[in-house]
Design a protein that fits this description.
CATH topology of the largest domain in chain A: Rossmann fold
Order of helices and strands of chain A: HEHEEEEHEHHEHHEHEHEHEEEEH
Number of domains of chain A: 2
Radius of gyration of chain A: 19 Å
Number of helices of chain B: 0
CATH architecture of the largest domain in chain A: 3-Layer(aba) Sandwich
Distance between the termini of chain B: 20 Å
Structural class of chain A: alpha/beta
Oligomer: heterodimer
Strand order of the largest sheet of chain A: 3-2-6-1-7-8-9
CATH superfamily of the largest domain in chain A: P-loop containing nucleotide triphosphate hydrolases
Shape of chain A: globular
Helix content of chain B: under 10%
Number of helices of chain A: 11
Largest interface: A-B, 23 and 27 residues
Number of strands of chain B: 33
Strand content of chain A: 25-35%
Shape of chain B: globular
Strand order of the largest sheet of chain B: 22-23-24-25-29
Largest sheet of chain A: 7 strands, parallel
CATH class of the largest domain in chain A: Alpha Beta
Strand content of chain B: over 45%
Chain lengths: 340, 341
């Protein structure tokens, strides 16, 4: 079991997978695959896009997207009212579900969906956002990512890639290898830490997209060590990701102050943050994930006696300044001088 | 099923095969709606249970007419209306979220359907409908003796009357309104909100007030019979606000603490300030909620330990409290006059 999946399994909440991706990327095909596979799980599906899903064993609920602002002084804080309602009703049922799947529309902004799991107490207590899985159509991905939007309007394809914990690169049979490589490199430029799963007809192992414990940072960082030092910028407003790995222990109070201030001031531009942390004095790893200004975390597995205490963090967002982030983070090391 | 504490006078105990989410008690009948959509009636004298109807998409609310002869149940995909004398049942499956139903007297009932509210006669025939709100209707309440309907949806509470589909008055507030309470005097409209606040409008001039600082979203709130007291959840504690005189502006609420998390509250009929509350830890408490000074924490009159969460409470007169539990138990507790349980 991976570190993150291990931490997730301990927490007892029902995992929720969010499926995003443009119309025609294969969301419904993947959903039907998940539902027809003999996995023995009781699954509830919430659909925002009226697809051809209809499996006797699964409960399928339709929803229409309703985005609500929250009056909490958090400028980017929006939630999905439709999901709060439906998930609330689902939790009151006698039947317990092993897993919940939410299929969003192709144009959906993933932020309010993800923020719903942080902002509603009932939901946060009983459900856990396991992973955002984004389907990308290999044949049309570049076209979608390059699409120029009017000023102030986000490109949904870029957002969906930026928010993803897993990307299913679908329809690879319809394009040549060069195109696949180009799409992969475009995805990596936005979200370097994401695991990309190439697929045809949305055929993927369910273990790769369900109950994955949000992300497995350790594996990604091992595969792509360059990610940690890469300083290459495209231009300042583009969506990129930066990763850090620090040896040593972090001072919890300093880290809270720094991270709190960072998300308060830059939260609108930081789409996601994730980390596995070594906190000074803690016998266990601390695993966290965030969406814009909101953070959620819990302790994971114990550190092994001989293991080097090491923290790994990833930020995905717009106009990220690696040097500045690195300085701030280094100052949180318990061995660093007193914080200013 | 956990037995209640020894010595508590249980009038009867019944069981239904679902997780109750709503209760309605009128004229000697209790209606119980289960999350999966089955609805039963229970005779409040004997505890005898009878199946009433079943909503295929699950249930969210149930409402008996004041004479107990008609029943409306609502759910995530539609609603059902039943004439209990003839047994005639009409199920309307629209796929739209139907949050609640509220009777105005015995002949008309307002039913939420998606972004609209419909007003039906007792047989379920539509009399009139509001124009659609910008988002799904979450709660309804009648004002002015059933001539004006307050409709809560994200962003505003809109008041409608029969002669026009558009609202006659709109009370805007940017927030997700989860529950609505209207003072029986008609002076106040209050909404419990997703952003952990209560928003209050004075109907006369539309002046408004926000009570924030709750720990959690406020999804249950209720005025007592006098309209002077409002009870609300939104924290481990129940808060009770004083709406007498100029209202609660600048005042502090009374705070009632007994449950891990409040899951139900119901004022005892009669206006003596007695409030029954239930929690997700199965506890049940009865309070003299209006005594004591503001900001003092009153101790509960009596707490019944339980196992399964309390999901709904309703009074059958002033001496019988009907309690629904998540495991399907429905119990009636005899409450003698006074604040003892």
């Amino acid at each position: 079991m991976t570190d993150a999946a291990d931490a997730a399994a301990r927490d007892g909440r029902v995992p929720v997978t969010v499926l995003t991706g443009f119309l025609g990327s294969g969301k419904t095909t993947l959903l039907n695959r998940i539902l027809t596979e003999q996995h023995g799980m009781k699954i509830a599906v919430i659909e925002n896009e009226f697809g051809e899903v209809g499996i006797d064993d699964a409960l399928v609920l339709d929803a229409e997207e309703e985005i609500f602002e929250m009056n909490n002084g958090c400028i980017c804080c929006t939630v999905r009212g439709d999901l709060i309602r439906i998930l609330g009703a689902l939790m009151r049922r006698r039947e317990k579900f092993d897993h919940i799947l939410i299929e969003t529309t192709g144009l959906a902004d993933p932020a309010p969906v993800a923020q719903t799991f942080f902002m509603d107490d009932e939901i946060a207590a009983q459900l856990r956002l396991d992973a955002i899985v984004t389907l990308v159509d290999a044949a049309h991905a570049i076209q979608h990512l390059d699409e120029v939007k009017p000023e102030g309007v986000e490109n949904e394809a870029v957002e969906q890639v930026a928010f993803a914990d897993r990307i299913v690169l679908n329809k690879t049979d319809l394009v040549d290898e060069t195109t696949v490589a180009e799409v992969v490199s475009r995805i990596r430029a936005i979200n370097a830490a994401v695991q990309i799963i190439p697929a045809r007809h949305a055929a993927v192992d369910l273990e790769e997209v369900m109950d994955v414990g949000a992300f497995d940072l350790a594996r990604v960082l091992k595969d792509d060590p360059e990610f940690l030092t890469e300083t290459e910028h495209q231009h300042d407003t583009s969506v990129t990701s930066v990763g850090f790995e620090l040896t040593g222990e972090l001072d919890e109070a300093r880290l809270n102050r720094w991270l709190g201030a960072l998300l308060r001031t830059k939260g609108a531009d930081i789409f996601r943050s994730k980390g596995i942390l070594a906190l000074a004095g803690a016998p266990k790893q601390y695993v966290f994930q965030g969406v814009h200004m909101l953070l959620d975390g819990q302790f994971g597995r114990e550190w092994q006696p001989a293991e080097t205490r090491r923290s790994k963090l990833v930020f995905i967002g717009r106009g990220l300044d690696r040097d500045q982030l690195e300085q701030g983070l280094s100052a949180c090391l318990s061995t660093a001088g007193a914080a200013a | 099923m956990t037995a209640p504490a020894v010595g508590v006078p249980l009038a009867w105990e019944a069981a239904v095969e679902d997780a109750p989410v709503a209760l309605s008690v009128r004229a000697g009948t209790a209606a119980v709606a289960g999350a999966d959509g089955r609805v039963w009636t229970v005779d409040t004298a004997t505890g005898a249970v009878r199946p009433a109807l079943e909503l295929p998409g699950g249930a969210l609310s149930v409402a008996l007419s004041p004479d107990g002869r008609h029943l409306v149940a609502t759910g995530p995909t539609g609603y059902g209306v039943q004439d209990r004398d003839t047994g005639r049942t009409v199920l309307t499956e629209t796929g739209a979220w139907s949050a609640t139903a509220v009777w105005a007297g015995g002949q008309r009932v307002a039913v939420a359907r998606g972004r609209q509210a419909l007003v039906l006669d007792a047989q379920g025939e539509q009399l009139w409908a509001t124009e659609p709100a910008p988002s799904t209707v979450t709660d309804l309440a009648w004002l002015r003796d059933g001539r004006r309907l307050a409709v809560a949806a994200y962003g505003a509470v809109r008041c409608h009357e029969r002669h026009t589909a558009a609202p006659v008055v709109t009370y805007p507030y940017v927030g997700s309104h989860l529950a609505l309470a209207v003072a029986p005097t008609g002076r106040w409209i209050c909404s419990g909100n997703q952003d952990a606040s209560i928003h209050i409008w004075r109907t006369r001039d539309g002046s408004e007030l926000t009570m924030s600082g709750y720990r959690e979203k406020v999804s249950r709130l209720a005025f007592d019979d006098t309209g002077f007291w409002l009870a609300a959840d939104g924290a481990p504690d129940v808060t009770v606000w004083d709406f007498s005189g100029k209202g609660p502006a600048g005042t502090a609420p009374r705070s009632l603490s007994a449950h891990r998390k409040v899951t139900a509250l119901a004022w005892r009929p009669g206006g003596a300030g007695h409030l029954a509350t239930g929690g997700d830890d199965g506890t049940l408490a009865l309070w003299h909620a209006t005594s004591g000074r503001p900001q003092t924490r009153l101790s509960p009159a009596r707490t019944l330990p339980g196992g399964s969460a309390v999901t709904a409470l309703a009074w059958a007169g002033s001496e019988l409290l009907v309690v629904a539990y998540r495991d399907g138990a429905v119990r009636a507790v005899e409450v003698p006059p006074g604040v003892t349980l």
